[in-house]
Specification:
eleven-stranded mixed β-sheet; 437 residues; 25% strand; elongated; Dihydrodipicolinate Reductase, domain 2; 17 strands; alpha/beta; Rossmann fold; Alpha-Beta Plaits; six-stranded parallel β-sheet; 15 helices
Amino acid sequence: MKPLKVGLLGIGTVGGGTFSVLLRNKQEIFRRTGREIEIVRVADRDLVRANEVTQGKVEVTDDPFSLVKDPNIDVIVELIGGTSLARELVIKAIENGKHVVTANKALIALHGNEIFAMAESKGVIVAFEAAVAGGIPIIKALREGLVANRIEWIAGIINGTTNFILSEMLEKSLTFNEVLKEAQRLGYAESDPTFDVEGIDAAHKLMIMSAIAFGIPMQFDKVYTEGITKLASKDIMYAVELGYRVKLLGIAKRTNDGVELRVHPTLIPQKRLVANVNGAMNAVVVKGDAVGPTLYYGAGAGAEPTASAVIADLVDVARMQFASFEQRVPYLAFQNNQISNLPILPIEEIQSAYYLRMRVLDKPGVLAEITKIFALRQISIDAMIQREPQENEDEADIVFLTHITQEGNMNAAIAEIESLSAIDGRVTKIRMEELSK
């Protein structure tokens, strides 16, 4: 069988890793595939870098559109990032009958519906394993490995930058801003870290996993997103005292009323394996009705881990290029006429337990006022820490853990508590997940 001819758009970190791994493991990949996979052309704005990486082994250009038009190329690998130029190139590639492999989570989360519809009309494959959790094959697990299951929920640490920051805040008792500077120095965080620390990157990935898990269209604008910039180190320490760890989680749940899609800091019991995933590593827990909870752990970014996923997609294209559309695994795991319009629940309608910290005046009756508000709203308290005031202070922290209630109900209770004269400032609220059933 003739080699699969690949055009590579972007040869930065992931593109360079893809070129290197494909060249290094060429024979091993051929033994598995029975077909050579060959990068024949590379497009990159930085021709000097591109030529250094490729070492004259392939043709290099700074015109990406020449690759998507090239009749000798079978598949385009899009690794340039962003959503404007990348979308234009991917659409042009599909229009020209080329298969597409991408690591671009924003592109899929925002434009996946359009891209998949066009790919189906042209009979080409769009593969995106590398778009979520780097080298962890979570897309294949959701789409194929767990196909016998009704997926009930997903909870994932799917951004290495924020996981590194939270791990360092815990281990070194540092503030968010102190650790962010260190993360930037080490290259874990960008000079503008907004996409990571505000949860946007994780929300892109959660949308993709949820679409596959539940058979729903991409609806990124409905994902509730909350980052870690407002987390205080004292809350991380209180969580430890109560037997929990704080992680930025992407959470998707199927409920009787619809689907919860949310990214936010979360307290997890420290006995859970996922609570002990530290540094820049990723982990995803998937609960299926037949298999129960399953954990997927590994490097969520980096040149060669992500390249591993890109090349796995290329192997799938090599194997399935000539198969009929009906023989291929659907993009979102479900047949197109079975995609569901399950409603995405507003954050006010989700159900969760909560960690609450408040600064209160040290005087009789304050605790009774707070617990009365909880009781009137049928919010049950699971645990509590009450600190004594420091010397020369008349205020102290009270921390509550609650049982599950509706978010809207909790927000109303917090508003009433904050209106009390004995409460200083805002109540800190962090959601909690047991991840056990």
